[in-house]
Amino acid sequence: MLKALTDTLTNMNVVSAVTSTIFIILLGFFLRRKGIFSDSLGKTLSKVVLTVALPALAFNSFMQPIDPVTLRQGINVLIWGIIIYILLIFITPFMYFKSDKDKKTVLSVLTTFGSTTFFGIPIVGAVWGAKGVMYSSIFNIGYRIFLYSYAYIKLSGLKLEKKNIKTMLLNPIVIATFLGLFLWLFQDAAPHVTVPAADATGKMVSVAFYRIDQTAIWLFKPLSYLAALASPLAWLAIGVTLGSVSFSEAATDKTSWYYSWNKVVIVPLINLVLLFILTATHILPVDNIALSTIIVMMATPTAAVAAAYSIGFDHGALMTSNASFISTVCAVVAIPLWIVVLSVIKAAGMFG
């Protein structure tokens, strides 16, 4: 185990991914504090990430060959992505059993749903590449189902509305995910063309005609440039957001610290333990990349949509704002530590 830890801490891919995340977030924080970046810039960057960069990143991640192992992992990630949210819906209220009913409801929803899309996917992509992004996009299918149904109903007190379903289905990231997933799954059945491989070998390969990573580099490359914007822009936006809020005010809220501990430590730990058991018993085995993707996604801070529900329907608006800020600060510290832990787990050979 000591050797595994040493190998991890000297692995430049891991170290550079962690430092890149921290340094760029700190850059955004510094530039906001200095007044070089305005408060509105964070929101603008977020919109660019969510409407352009992340859809391109999600779609491009499916432009790869399909094989039985990856397909099986993708199915297991999808299944777990639905099961874990059902489990968390029942588990998280017990974390706040001393709180009153309304506070318990808000905190349990905020603990269940993290910022997997905006905060999680850019980090996953930076560390585990296209396969990690693909798994995270598949994992997010269950997340979106419950975020736009259960979370909305729970915090609004209303029935699920058509406009909410429309918002979910017409989200650019959802469209890109389902389109990419469909193309990835059915590429063997699609008409094939033989083209020179896009890699340095240049040997001839037979691929589905829509595998633009091989058949239309002129289209795949611009999407790749847009996808590459996801991580740095998201991290800058996070830094700007942190730089726009008074830490001293939020830091006095003990509930926010307790919530943040549950969100970025306990929830991913629950996932880690359960997935270890499921993998060891071969009930729902996942490999190291799938495991790492899931753990990082679950260690993310408050989901913006869940926070918007809470604030919009006047359920502990101040508490939600503080919780969102503190959990973001905690996630900036915790996720790099989780990456190190996951790298040690990989080096120790605990997951395939």
Automatic annotation (TrEMBL):
The keyword Membrane applies. It is found in: Membrane. Keywords: Cell membrane, Membrane, Transmembrane, Transmembrane helix, Transport. Pfam families: Mem_trans. The chain crosses the membrane at residues 12-32, 44-63, 75-97, 109-128, 134-153, 165-186, 223-243, 264-283, 289-311, 323-345. Its main location: membrane. It is a multi-pass membrane protein. GO terms for biological process: transmembrane transport. It comes from the Bacteria. InterPro entries: Mem_transp_PIN-like. One of its GO terms (cellular component) is membrane. This is AEC family permease. It comes from Schleiferilactobacillus perolens DSM 12744. The lineage of its organism: Bacteria, Bacillati, Bacillota, Bacilli, Lactobacillales.
